[in-house]
């Protein structure tokens, strides 16, 4: 209990100084700072995920602090609505809600199991090399969503490198796919994505022995 309280206090103090998008009202303000900016500018799904993750993490910590048993996140009002933080300037509402729900589930699971806050680091990793001047791109976002789903669903694992993608007429689709896959491995609470993350850590550990 003591260590969890310490972690919660550190989380709150950290959130006061990281991503401006946590409290901002439009896309430009929310993506104004941080290395994750290019990703959130190009992917509505990723933007929604970040909002949902922060809310899910907060909800789980609140549940723990008041002694409430873990909830089925799908039954909560936040999950059902999934657009509390949405603004018209963000883009497609349905894609935002899809990302928000994935983020809400992952944030809640990470927090309730006393895992670290992973979403910001995952977004910054997925954003490496992206053009900071680009804005919402439907090909990139479609690929990002497909890649995220592939990491979370073993049935689509064969598409890891975009070889099975259908919408490949634009190279940004495959770029989004690879980044979405990596983002899910680093941020999703889906069992399949967690398995991939553990495998990657094992492989990295073996390589430095």
Radius of gyration: 17 Å
Please give the largest β-sheet.
none
Strand content: under 5%
- What is the share of helical residues? 55-70%
- Please work out how many helical segments DSSP would assign: 10
What is the string of helix and strand elements?
HHHHHHHHHH
- The termini sit apart by 36 Å
Mean pLDDT: 78
Number of strand segments: 0
Query: Ranges with pLDDT <50 over ≥5 residues?
Result: 5-28, 204-209
Main structural class: mainly alpha
Query: What is the 3D shape?
Result: globular
Q: Which labels suit this protein?
A:
209 residues; mainly alpha; 61% helix; disordered C terminus
Q: Would you mind describing this structure in some detail?
A:
The protein contains 10 helices and no strands. Helices cover 61% and strands 0% of the residues. The radius of gyration is 17 Å and the shape is globular. It has helices at residues 2-15, 27-30, 37-42, 44-65, 77-81, 93-112, 119-126, 138-152, 171-187, 191-207. The longest helix is centred in the N-terminal third of the chain and has 22 residues, at 44-65. With 209 residues, it is mainly alpha-helical. Mean pLDDT is 78; it is low at 5-28 and 204-209.
């Amino acid at each position: 209990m003591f260590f969890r309280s310490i972690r919660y206090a550190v989380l709150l103090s950290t959130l006061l100084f990281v991503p401006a998008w946590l409290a901002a009202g439009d896309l430009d303000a929310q993506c104004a700072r941080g290395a994750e900016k290019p990703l959130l500018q190009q992917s509505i799904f990723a933007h929604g995920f970040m909002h949902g993750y922060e809310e899910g993490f907060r909800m789980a910590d609140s549940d723990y602090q008041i002694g409430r048993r873990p909830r089925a996140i799908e039954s909560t009002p936040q999950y059902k609505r999934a657009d509390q933080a949405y603004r018209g300037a963000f883009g497609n509402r349905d894609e935002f809600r899809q990302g928000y729900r994935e983020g809400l589930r992952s944030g809640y699971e990470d927090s309730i199991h006393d895992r670290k806050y992973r979403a910001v680091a995952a977004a910054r990793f997925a954003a490496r090399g992206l053009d900071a001047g680009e804005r919402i791109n439907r090909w990139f976002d479609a690929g990002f969503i497909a890649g995220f789903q592939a990491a979370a669903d073993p049935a689509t694992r064969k598409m890891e490198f975009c070889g099975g993608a259908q919408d490949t007429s634009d190279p940004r689709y495959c770029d989004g796919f690879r980044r979405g896959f990596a983002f899910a491995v680093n941020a999703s609470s889906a069992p399949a994505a967690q398995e991939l993350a553990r495998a990657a850590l094992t492989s990295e550990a073996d390589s430095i022995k």
